[in-house]
Every structure is written in C-alpha cells, then in structure tokens.
C-alpha cells in the first residue's frame, strides 16, 4: 500500500522527438504512457512531444495547443503543396520543411541544384497575414541549398541575372546572380520578432558550410557540392553590395548554413539565431512541465553522435539536469556508450533493438515494442 501511495504522487514527463521512419513524437508519447501504465496504472504522465525546428516542429506546437493553419504554397520544385504553420495568439511556428523539406520532393527524387525555398517564404508571409508578431522559424530537414534565395524572392526581394531577369530557382541558379534589390521586402518583417530556430550551427559556405556538410544528404554529388559552394559564396558577395557589410558577417554566423543556407537568408531578414531545441522548449512550455515532474523520458529514433550536437534529447536532458531531474531515454537504435549518455545527462537509454534485434521488425512493430520498453522503465525507475 505504501508503494502505491508513492506511485500515485509520481509524475513523469514524456518529452521525446519522433522516431523518424516509424513513430511521430505524439505516438512515441502515447506508447510510452501506455507502457508505463501497464506497470504503474495510476502513474501521472504529462506528454510534451518535442522537436528541434526540423520536420515535426509544427506537429509538436499543435500538440502543445497551437492551432494548425494550412496554406497552399510552392513545394521545392514549384509544384503546389499543402503546408501548415502553427499559431497561438500572435506567435506563429513556421517550419520550413513543411514547404521545402525532403519529404516534399515529388516522388522523392533529389534536386540538389534546383530545389527552392520559395514556398518557405510564402509560408512566412501567410503567418504574417494571420497576424503573427513573433515568428519562430524552424529550419532543418530541407531539400534545398539555395541560401534562402527563394524565400527572399517570395517575400519581395529581386534577385536578377545580367539581363535583369530573375535567376533560375535553386542554389545552382545563384551562379548567374548579377544584382540584388531588397527594397521590396515585405515591410511587416521589420516590425516582427523573427527567431531562427535551427537544428545546426554551420556557416553558409566552406568545409563546414551547408553544401559540404548537408548537400550529400540532398543528393548532391562532389561536383554539385563544389558548384553550390561557389554559387552561395557568390550570392553572399552580391548581397553584401545590396545589404551592406553585415551580410558578410551573416555568412559566417552560426546557423547561416542551416537548411541549405536559409539560415543566412533569415539572418538577412533580421532573425535572431537560437538552437532550435532551446526555442522549442520555450515555445512548448517545457520549464513548467519539468517542474511538475520527477522523471523525464526523452528520446528519438537514433541516439547517436548527432544527438549530442543540439538534437532534442540532448536539449531536454541539459534542461532537466539543470533542474536536477532524472532523465532516461528511449530510442529505436542506440549508438552511444553509457558514459557518453551520462555526460549528456541521460541516466540510461533503452533501445527497441534491445528487445527485438531484427531492425525491420522494430520499425514495423515500433509502437508495441516501445510499450514494452516503457514497461521496463517503469519497473526500473518507478517501482
Ligand atoms: N522503430 C525503430 N527501430 C529501430 N530503429 C529506428 C526505429 N525508428 C527509427 N529508427 C532509426 O532512427 C533513424 C532516424 O533517426 P531520428 O529519428 O533520430 O531522426 P534523424 O535522422 O536524426 O533526424 P532528426 O534530426 O529529424 O531527428 C532511422 O533512420 C532508423 O535508423
Ligand atoms: O536541412 C538541412 O540542411 C539540415 O537539416 C541542416 O539544417
């Protein structure tokens, strides 16, 4: 009986990202909750699905009470897609991947040189039209490497070739850029707070720049990477003339290389860079939820080296550790040693592959296996 009383006062916060390819963040929270309750039926669980600015960011905001707004915008190759942003009061969460993400490529065919962020600019404009005064611009998971040129064009910039014609869409077309005029940018941008919520802190170009580091995952060959790097460097030089020397500073700033350089475009628009997970934890109301919890369960599909570089579980664990709360993680696959996890503030990680070594089955049956994993956490930490 004493035990049951202890259980009933326990509260668990489930603040995990999606398992990309098998479960959304909302589903992860549901399955973890169900698994914990198999062992401790009266456990109090608060679900706060999280995201780092990349794909899933709008869904996390909606799960936290934002309203979902849908708009028709241009996809990466110009075809119309339905994209959503999230709105609560005068705060909008705009996810670039909704318009210009890899999952928006027609038939999934990469277009490293031609994919454009035009639709992301349309999405920002729709958020302004809806009355947003604070725009959290979540970036990552992009199909594009255009330095945000498409986005700037959608918001009123003129990016012209030597004949005075708009440059072709995509990063490849920027090699033809001869002049830029930012005077037609939507004036509302100057009056709002724009936050660049980025999953990475790379600069625009160079060995750590957007083309070199993230081009290949968008289908860029080594030649494409070289062409995109040169085109983006040229673009930044032309914009220096149009926007002044601060444009040169932006190209080297952390986050400029996020989402194919849309970070750079956002900085030009006056955005303030912040690590995406930190911004999202604020937007989602993580701090008060953390205060109410005794145990935090975070996670994502693959806990690996990348996780430590600003991904959602690392951000959740850092915040929880600062509040002296115990953190465990769930994941599909685990590629971090216990001492590395410990240093990141994660007491223990539980992988689906611990229970089911067949990865294909882990993915196909992710939900039920995650419930079993959560039951194990309940036995280890809550009984
Ligand atoms: N149910 C599962 N079982 C085993 N492995 C899984 C499962 N679901 C996802 N994964 C692994 O996790 C990977 C996806 O990782 P993750 O969810 O951390 O996203 P990511 O690629 O790091 O991107 P993001 O930055 O959006 O989080 C998949 O490619 C796969 O290897
Ligand atoms: O979209 C991309 O290029 C990566 O997610 C890094 O931001």
Structure description:
This protein is α/β, with parallel strands linked by helices. It is 41% helix and 19% strand. It has a six-stranded mixed sheet with strand order 3-4-5-6-9-10, sandwiched between helices. The protein has a five-stranded parallel sheet with strand order 2-1-11-12-13, sandwiched between helices. A hairpin with a 2-residue loop joins strand 4 and strand 5. Helix 2 (25-39) packs across helix 18 and helix 8 runs antiparallel to helix 9. The longest helix has 22 residues, at 222-243. The radius of gyration is 22 Å and the shape is elongated. The two termini are 12 Å apart. The structure holds adenosine-5'-triphosphate and (2R)-2,3-dihydroxypropanoic acid. Residues 54, 140-142, 199-200, 214, 258-260 line the site of (2R)-2,3-dihydroxypropanoic acid (DGY).
